[in-house]
Amino acid sequence: MHTDVLVEKMLIAGDWVDAEEFFHVYNPENNEIIAKVPLASNKQMLLAIDKGHSVLKNHAAWPTHERIRILNNVANYIEENKEKYARTIATEGSKTIKEARGEVKRTIQTIKISAEEARRVNGETINFDQMEGSENRVGYHYRFPIGVIGAITPFNDPLNLVAHKIGPAIAAGNPIVVKPASVTPLSALLLAEAFVKSGLPKGYLSVLTGSGKDIGETLITHPNVKMISFTGGLETGEKIAKQAGLKKVNMELGSNSPVIVLNDANQSEAVAACVSGAFSAVGQNCIGVQRIYVEKESYNQFLTALVEETTKLKVGDKLLESTDMGPLINEREAKRVEAWVNDALYRGAKLHTGGKRTGAFYEPTILTDVPEGAKIAKEEIFGPVVLVFPVNNVEEAVARSNSVNYGLQAGVFTNNIDNAYYTIQNMAVGGIMVNDSSDYRIDAMPFGGIKGSGLGREGVRSAIEAMTEPKVVCFQLQKWL
């Protein structure tokens, strides 16, 4: 079936504009062109930053109730058009229509939480008289918006991860310039539409589509951009950190997430959670399950059940309600996953299911006996592949979990409180899910990791704190009453 090609505009400071050049957006399932999108120029990026900087100077007293109203209107607009948003996510990206609807639901929650947190951007009083000689001083501190936020977002959650940048920025009173992933810009433009329709003052939001190579450095290095919020790969994150200079940087850089399954765990629940955690969104998920460490007494039973449940997954048309897994974002990524798996097999790994590629599709794959030195064991696969290892005890499982240069989230399945607390105390990660896989998150919680998994925390409240600064106010009273 032929799909009509959309001709899109991008948003600069509240105005929908074209560019001199355009690029195409493809459906990864069949490589069909679905949209023609502006290729932003460096001049347009400079304009967006300048407009954002100007509006903050000229619109400094932006009432909190106005920000709350706009954010609630955005959430309502998305709710009213949720199927349109879901089909856009599923068409331009890798998610099935069921997964896309889940992302839309979470996006609505993210925006609503942003509205709620806007009323809680508070300071506190300070007891200046705690220091001798300051008995006649009183004061407080309050938080103020830091300035233009530069946001760079990935393809795997093309709506909600953009909302996690824009929602907190607006709640805090900051202008924001967003550069979405070039392969999935349509969802970001739809979110921008919701803000425009909801009455966001001009200047506070720009969404520029195009090449990070052409406009990314300007966004990162411009002195009027006071913070960079980036979600993406470690290599790109390291480059951005070097370019950004003396400004705030908040980064979520991916992972190689481990899950530990101990003998006393509910094995069937662990299997179900690991299958979902490894293969939802085609494994293109920073907290997706990549490594599973199972105590030896349970290993064979767990592995057999894991393979059995995995082979039930239906791979195919993203828009069919019965589909469990679609394609990767493009054939190039599928070929990369294929190469990493083949490298592991060459090094002695054993294939239990999957391992085959058709275009951008790659079958859900389970490997065992993967050497620790294989790339797939050390790096983020970002594809539908999971590795399973036997371990002697929880101490070995934790040590091996910590052996990579990532530390975003982890899961542990156990009914023993001591084992649970051992993992909590000793796993080098930003979040531990007990009796769940690593693939669990709510949009209100602090989210982020350590080591190569990033800097700072996302989650609405955490992002607002990063996008504001405290200002101290102290009164010296002339006459103490």
UniProtKB/TrEMBL annotation:
The keyword Oxidoreductase applies. Gene3D superfamilies: Aldehyde Dehydrogenase, Chain A, domain 1 (3.40.605.10), Aldehyde Dehydrogenase, Chain A, domain 2 (3.40.309.10). GO terms for molecular function: lactaldehyde dehydrogenase (NAD+) activity. It catalyses: (2S)-3-sulfolactaldehyde + NAD(+) + H2O = (2S)-3-sulfolactate + NADH + 2 H(+). It comes from the Bacteria. Residues 16-473 form the Aldehyde dehydrogenase domain. It is an enzyme of class 1 (oxidoreductase). The keyword Nucleotidyltransferase does not apply. Part of the sulfo-TAL (or sulfo-SFT) pathway, a D-sulfoquinovose degradation pathway that produces sulfolactate (SL). Catalyzes the oxidation of 3-sulfolactaldehyde (SLA) to sulfolactate (SL). This is 3-sulfolactaldehyde dehydrogenase. It comes from Evansella cellulosilytica (strain ATCC 21833 / DSM 2522 / FERM P-1141 / JCM 9156 / N-4). The lineage of its organism: Bacteria, Bacillati, Bacillota, Bacilli, Bacillales.
